Amino acid sequence: MLPAPQPLSQFYLSAYLNQLRQDGYSIFLVQGALPPVTLDEAGASVDAPGRCFTPEQEGNMVTLQSQQGNRSRSRSQSWGEEDEDIAKAIAASLEGIIELAIRLPNGARLMRRFNSGQPVSDVLEYVRYSCPEVGPKPVLSAQLPRRVLHDVRQKLRDAGLANREALTVQAPS
């Protein structure tokens, strides 16, 4: 992990945000003025939301962090227990999450994560939002075994959908 934030190019930021959108993440933009920055006697920011460092400052921070790490090794035994708790919390938060691959009538493919407790109607709503040309009542079907998901109130887990399941969307005939 880097000791300080790194500047991003416009191209990298754009490509990264596009990849996140394609992976099904929502991106929110917050606009407005940042709070005023207060400087201490040394001219360093006291309460700013972030700070950029020169390469020399980064090198000094890495040296300082390694020196502090040597002194705090005795505390690391208790951190192992915290790490286990964090891993358990992450696993519990991901329980019931399924990722669906959705093939649209135009051949495009969507990937999105859903909670297995969400209704089938949420998938259809996502499809209509992502591809308006499918119309108001697209037909959603699972691949293996092939079955049409008629009951839009049914939860995804009750419809038999599993993680990495492939679905196809057809415009109503």
TrEMBL record:
InterPro entries xref list: Ataxin-3, Ubiquitin-like_domsf, UBX_dom, UIM_dom
A Pfam family hit: UBX
PANTHER family linked: ATAXIN-3-RELATED
Organism: Coccomyxa subellipsoidea (strain C-169) (Green microalga)
Coiled-coil region: none
GO biological process, one term: protein deubiquitination
Region (Disordered): 62-82
Lineage of source species: Eukaryota, Viridiplantae, Chlorophyta, core chlorophytes, Trebouxiophyceae
Protein name from the UniProt record: UBX domain-containing protein
MF-aspect GO terms: cysteine-type deubiquitinase activity
